[in-house]
Design brief:
Radius of gyration: 15 Å
Distance between the termini: 6 Å
Number of domains: 1
CATH superfamily: Acid Proteases
CATH topology: Cathepsin D, subunit A, domain 1
Largest sheet: 6 strands, mixed, barrel
Shape: globular
Helix content: 10-25%
Number of strands: 10
Order of helices and strands: EEHEEHEEEEHEE
Length: 146
């Protein structure tokens, strides 16, 4: 089981991620002889309070994603009124040197405005459920294992 251990920075539990069009979307693009957009290398912030993973709108644009639907999102800032977000299918990989860990070839994610916080993705419990996450405040590190 590969383990990624990184220093804990002032901006939280940040991990390197590779965001790409979903596996099924890649197959469709190949069949149509259309180019497959290159993956987006970015910063993912681990958020154990988020039930779902989110990606920034810039990733949606870079990958040419089309919504698969919408979903209601409740957050402390929305109160009891849900915010409607577009939902997309992507492929998510976590860079765990010297290899990639494929978290999912097809995972539904929601679109959000994250780049202003310096991140491309918010990694929620839907991804974390497949592994182990350790926040070690005394050592000022995070560890992620899959």
């Amino acid at each position: 089981m590969p383990i990624l251990t990184l220093p804990l920075g002032g901006d939280g539990a940040i991990i390197p991620v590779l965001l790409h069009v979903s596996g099924p979307r890649q197959q469709v693009l190949r069949a149509l002889k259309q180019p497959i957009p290159p993956p987006v290398l970015g910063r993912g912030q681990i958020d154990t309070g988020a039930s779902a993973t989110a990606i920034d709108s810039s990733v949606v644009q870079a990958l040419g994603l089309l919504p698969t639907g919408t979903t209601n999102v409740l957050a402390p800032s929305t109160g009891t009124v849900p915010h409607v977000c577009n939902q997309y299918d992507i492929s998510l990989m976590i860079l765990m040197a010297p290899q990639l860990h494929v978290a999912s070839m097809t995972i539904p994610v929601i679109e959000s405005q994250l780049l202003s916080q310096g991140i491309h993705a918010l990694i929620g419990r839907d991804v974390l459920a497949g592994g182990m996450f350790v926040y070690n405040g005394k050592a000022n590190t995070i560890s992620l294992a899959f």
